Amino acid sequence: MIIEPLAGALGAEVRGVDLKAADDAVWRRVREIFLEYAVLVFRDQQLEPADLMRVGARFGEPCHYPFVSGIDGFPFIFEVVKEESETVNFGGNWHSDTTYLAQPPLATLLHALETPKQGGDTLFANTCAAYEALSEGMRAIVSKLVGLNSASLKVTGGRRKMHSTIGGMKTQDMEKADEYEAEHPVVRTHPDTGRKALYLSRSHTIRFRDMTEQESRPLIDYLQAHQIRPEFTCRVRWSPGTLTVWDNRCTQHCAINDYHGQRRRMRRLTVGAQTPQ
Ligand code: SIN
């Protein structure tokens, strides 16, 4: 196994591994480097949906995504598609996945099927590094805060206009977005590494507990801008067969929407529901 870091803060490309054929010893090593790098990229993985389920099971039990139905026979896997004719993409704002659930998934697996000739990369940020870079005074303030996270928020700070599609995907139950709300600590402790991480986003965090939206917004905005500073990030370039798995407990990601006129199609699976603490 060859491990090539993608940047200073997080991310590694892992060569010499066929995930379908990996034995327990390989998986033990993959788990170690998952905790070390938080974002792992495996190239040229020929994975059918059943294979993706098996790979995902190495990280945790599968989770449902509330707004998009799964592909035939695989309710936990859905396709993230942006067609040539579309301008809106899925996941185009910085976030950690489904933080509006009481138990968000610890990991997301994204497997590329069709990718644009150029563009369509995904950015990742290390939210442990971001927390550790805060001043002692700010760490003390944010450590006491609890964030209210909602599926209904749009990045401009208002309630989301309900769409029947996200990117190219038909959505269900978007009118129920308001019902998906969860409170989580703004600073969470990674259960495996013990490191503390910021856990809030401008995409999903409406306000802090016992504070108004107006009072909360400036600090949410500051912390969002802080945690995606370039030195905390890495960038993943996709090609068909690339599988990336990321740790939602200590990262944020953002799908770059810079490939209008080209198709991008991925399969996505989330696993390992956990209560942030
Ligand atoms: C997501 O936010 O889960 C999608 C990321 C991507 O399509 O790159």
Structural class, from helix and strand content?
A: alpha+beta
N-to-C span: 33 Å
Morphology: globular
Unique bound compounds: succinic acid
Number of helical regions: 5
> Strand count, sense and closure of the main sheet?
8 strands, mixed
| Oligomeric assembly | single chain
How much helical structure, as a percent, in the residues? 10-25%
- Tell me the fraction of residues in β-strands, as a range: 25-35%
Q: How big is the Rg?
A: 18 Å
H-E order: EEHEHEEEEHHEEEEEEEHEEEE
* Topology, number of strands: 18
Query: Which residues form runs of ≥5 with pLDDT under 50?
Result: 155-164
Protein described:
By secondary structure, the chain is an alpha+beta fold. Helices cover 19% and strands 30% of the residues. Strands 1, 2, 3, 4, 5, 6, 16 and 18 form an eight-stranded mixed β-sheet that branches. Strands 15-7-17 form a three-stranded antiparallel β-sheet. Strand 1 (2-5) and strand 2 form a beta hairpin. The radius of gyration is 18 Å and the shape is globular. Residues 80, 90-91, 97, 108, 110, 122, 253, 255, 266, 268 line the site of succinic acid.
Write the layout of secondary structure elements.
Layout (H helix, E strand, L loop, with lengths): L1 E4 L6 E4 L8 H14 L1 E4 L6 H9 L4 E2 L14 E5 L22 E10 L7 E5 H6 L3 H8 L2 E5 L14 E2 L2 E2 L10 E5 L1 E3 L6 E3 L6 E4 L4 H15 L5 E4 L6 E5 L3 E5 L8 E10 L4
Parallel strand pairs: 2-3
Antiparallel strand pairs: 1-2, 3-16, 4-18, 5-18, 6-16, 6-18, 7-15, 7-17, 8-11, 8-14, 9-10, 12-13
The structure holds succinic acid (SIN).
Succinic acid (SIN) binds next to strand 6, strand 17 and strand 18.
